[in-house]
Each structure stands twice: as structure tokens, then as C-alpha cells.
Amino acid sequence: MNTRYVIKRLVDLVREEALRNSYSEITGIYVRLGAQENIREKDLVRTFNEVRDNPLIKDASLVVKKSKALARCRYCGNIFEVFYFNNRCKQCGSTYLEFVADRGISLEKVEGR
After folding, report:
1. What is the mean pLDDT of residues 76-96?
2. How confident is the model at residue 40 (pLDDT cuts 50, 70, 90)?
3. What's the half-sphere exposure (Cβ side, CA atoms, 13 Å) at 60?
4. Distance (Å, rounded) from C-alpha 102 to C-alpha 89?
5. Taking residues 29-36, what's their average pLDDT?
6. Which H or E element spans position 6?
7. Across the beta sheet with 70-73, what order do the strands follow?
């Protein structure tokens, strides 16, 4: 996914939230980056800083939280955090896993005044 497109869409969502809450200035934008998303946190922040010419967000900080990569054991049902591709289930040792982590970027909270 194109980082510029993501930030443009994020700014659109922030603008809608500002209208809904009668904010004239946004001070904080909190987003969650899915564990399986191909966009890096630092690329999001850098691109956001490049589009700060909008008066609504010129002083806003962007806080990005990365979700943990999770897997479910298809043998015993245990869900656990995955650190590398060849993990084994912590409960039964099986390698028969499915990834259950989320994808995408979601707007969690907007702060303003």
C-alpha cells in the first residue's frame, strides 16, 4: 500500500473526527498498525511530517502502535505471539499454525481542542 495514500486517507478521517467533535486544532493522532502490514512505522511518521501544511494538523503528533503478530495452533487451539516464521506452539510443540494477526491501519483516537 502506498504510504502517501494511507496518510491522505488518515488525514481525511482526522478531519471528519475534528468536525464531529468541533475541534479547530488537532493535538494528537493515535493509530494502530497491523502486524501483517507492509508499511513501516517510521515511513508513516515521515510522510505525515511532510504533509503538515494543513492548519488543522500542523501541531499534531502522530503516535503509531504496532500490533503483535499472533498465531493459533491448529492442533490444540493455543494463541501466542510469533517472533519468527518457524515458531512452535508454546503449549504442545506443534508447527501446524495459522496466523491470526490483524492487517491494515486503524485510527484509534484523535485529540484536539
Report:
1. 87
2. confident
3. 34
4. 19
5. 88
6. helix 3-21
7. 79-81, 70-73, 97-99
List phi, psi (to 5°) of 95. -105, 10
Do 6 and 106 contact (CB within 8 A), yes or no?
no
Cα angle for residues 8, 13, 16 (degrees, 5° grid): 130
Alpha-carbon Rg for the chain, nearest whole angstrom, is 18
pTM of the model: 0.76
Q: What CATH number is given for 3-112 in this structure?
A: 3.30.2320.80
pLDDT value of residue 85: 65
Cell 500490533 sits on residue = 67
Q: Helix-strand-coil percent breakdown of the chain, rounded to 5?
A: 25, 30, 45
Supply 106's cell numbers: 486503524
Q: Which three cell numbers stand for residue 27?
A: 493535538
- On whether the CB atoms of residues 92 and 65 are closer than 8 A, the answer is no
Per domain, the residue ranges of the chain are 3-112
Q: How is 25-54 classified by DSSP, letter by letter?
A: SEEEEEEEE-TT-SS-HHHHHHHHHHTTTS
Pairing of β 61-66 and β 70-73: unpaired
